[in-house]
């Protein structure tokens, strides 16, 4: 055989060359007079004998890669996993360990205090797990779904900045924005009774709000009756959801915005300002009327007391009333006292004091 590489040897696969104990550079053991290279003066065979190995052809000159393939097909090395002592395979032990690990991971469940675990057996509801450590059949026989029953969830209606127009009882339109707070009461009902629980709660909230606002006027809706509307919506929602078997509890309704539609909001504010002004005037008038009424009642009570005294002593009471009347009248006018025989002279001290307080007007000389 020619020691050089011919066209047929080029088309042979590497694996076929190894199995035929011939490298891609020619025979490796038939011709031993090639200077130790086995290729007739060509490139050195990289799969030839390593330095220090036995020269020449034969089985002793096989390459390390060839020996590796021989060990892989000779029974000592199969599939990349060595055999156990005695020639037995490791696969049964690996399978048993995997099954044990799978059972442990899918059969032991820890339920937190705020959670409840819903167990299904082959897709059907089986039981509800309370907080603690529990065991179940491995998946897929039994599956456990944990739900937080203490978390207060919130649904905002409407979402974002969009309008939610609702008709009031006096045929007006109000733009309402509100939120619904709720949590899970019965996990098994929440999971299996209604297909889309949160969407159902949202639709029930909208229906209950429209029914409640229809009983109030626009002024009541945007004014002092918000709390009453919230209570009615909460009660109506709970009744409807209990009838559906939703397994949830409504914790509260909060109206965040109650305004007229944006198109008429400016005009409505002007009307509201005028109504508030009119109400202010009415309140002031009522306060003044109450003040006059209280004053009249006080004067009437005083007159009744005088009348009672007059009935007991008419002459004395009449004289005392005369003196009191004259005292009120004369205290506001200037008085002149004329001396009479047997009357002590009167010194007008108040008049002197009044004159002393008046400023003295002086004029320049010659004028």
Q: Would you write up a description of this structure?
A:
The chain is rod-shaped, with a radius of gyration of 56 Å. The model is unreliable at 1-15, 21-42 and 49-62 (pLDDT under 50). Among the domains are: 7-73, no CATH class; 96-148; 153-260, 2-Layer Sandwich (Tetrahydropterin Synthase, Chain A), CATH 3.30.479. The protein is an alpha+beta fold and 367 residues long. The chain contains eleven helices and eleven strands. Strands 8, 9, 10 and 11 form a four-stranded antiparallel sheet that branches. Strands 5-4-7 form a three-stranded antiparallel sheet. It has helices at residues 7-11, 14-19, 64-73, 91-107, 187-192, 197-213, 218-222, 226-244, 265-312, 314-330, 349-357, and strands at 22-23, 26-27, 108-111, 115-121, 124-129, 132-135, 142-148, 153-157, 165-167, 173-184, 248-259. Helices cover 43% and strands 17% of the residues. The N and C termini lie far apart (166 Å).
Structural class: alpha+beta
Can you tell me the CATH class of the domain at 153-260?
Alpha Beta
Quick one: overall form?
rod-shaped
Cα Rg: 56 Å
Strand content: 15-25%
| Number of contiguous helices | 11
Taking all residues together, what is the mean pLDDT? 77
What string, H for helix and E for strand, traces the elements in order? HHEEHHEEEEEEEEHHHHEHHH
**Helix proportion:** 40-55%
CATH superfamily of the domain at 153-260: Band 7 domain
Tally of DSSP β-strands: 11
Any low-confidence stretches, pLDDT <50, length ≥5?
1-15, 21-42, 49-62
The description of the largest β-sheet is: 4 strands, antiparallel
Task: Find the CATH topology of the domain at 153-260.
Answer: Tetrahydropterin Synthase, Chain A
| Multimerization status | single chain
Distance between the termini: 166 Å
CATH architecture of the domain at 153-260: 2-Layer Sandwich
């Amino acid at each position: 055989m020619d020691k050089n590489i011919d066209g047929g040897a080029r088309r042979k696969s590497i694996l076929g060359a190894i199995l035929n104990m011939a490298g891609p550079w020619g025979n490796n053991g038939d011709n031993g007079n090639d200077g130790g290279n086995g290729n007739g003066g060509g490139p050195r065979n990289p799969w030839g004998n390593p330095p220090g190995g036995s020269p020449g052809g034969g089985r002793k000159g096989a390459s390390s890669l060839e020996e590796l393939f021989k060990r892989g097909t000779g029974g000592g090395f199969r599939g990349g996993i060595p055999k156990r002592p005695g020639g037995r395979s490791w696969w049964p032990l690996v399978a048993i360990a995997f099954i044990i690990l799978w059972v442990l991971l899918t059969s032991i469940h820890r339920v937190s205090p705020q959670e409840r675990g819903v167990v299904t057996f082959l897709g059907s509801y089986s039981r509800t797990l309370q907080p603690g450590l529990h065991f179940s059949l491995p998946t897929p026989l039994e599956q456990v779904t944990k739900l937080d029953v203490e978390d207060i969830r919130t649904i905002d209606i409407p979402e974002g900045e969009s309008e939610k127009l609702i008709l009031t009882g006096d045929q007006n339109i109000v733009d309402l924005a509100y939120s619904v707070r709720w949590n899970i009461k019965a996990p098994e009902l929440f999971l299996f009774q209604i297909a889309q629980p949160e969407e159902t709660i949202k639709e029930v909230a909208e229906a209950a709000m429209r029914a409640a606002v229809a009983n109030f006027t626009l002024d009541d809706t945007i004014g002092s009756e918000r709390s009453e509307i919230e209570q009615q919506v909460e009660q109506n929602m709970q009744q409807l959801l209990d009838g559906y078997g939703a397994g949830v509890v409504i914790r509260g309704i909060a109206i965040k915005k109650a305004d007229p539609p944006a198109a008429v909001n400016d005009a409505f504010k002007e009307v509201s300002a005028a109504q508030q002004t009119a109400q202010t005037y009415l309140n002031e008038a009522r306060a003044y009327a109450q003040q006059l009424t209280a004053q009249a009642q006080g004067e009437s009570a005083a007159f009744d007391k005088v009348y009672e005294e007059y009935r007991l002593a008419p002459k004395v009471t009449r004289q005392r009333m005369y003196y009191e009347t004259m005292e009120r009248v004369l205290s506001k006018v200037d008085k002149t006292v004329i001396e009479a025989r047997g009357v002590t002279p009167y010194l007008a001290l108040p008049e002197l004091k009044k004159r002393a307080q008046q400023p003295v007007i002086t004029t320049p000389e010659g004028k």
